[in-house]
Amino acid sequence: MKRRILGGTGMSVSEYALGAMMFGAMGNTDHDESVRMIHTALDAGINLVDTADVYSGGESELIVAKALKGRRDDIVLATKFGLPMGEDPNRRGGSARWIHRAVEDSLRRLETDHIDLYQMHRPDPHTDLDETLGALSDLVRAGKVRAVGGSFFSPEEIVEAQWTAERRGHHRFRTEQPPYSILTRGVESRVLPTAQRYGMGVLTFGPLNSGWLSGRADPTGGHRNAGPGAKMFDLAQPGVRAKADAVRELTALAAEAGLPLPHLAVAFVRAHPAVTAVLIGPRRPEQLADLLAAADVELGDDLLDRIDEIVPPGVDVNPGDFYIDPTPPITEKRLRRR
Question: Which is the catalytic residue, given 55, 118, 180, 198?
Answer without folding.
Answer: 55
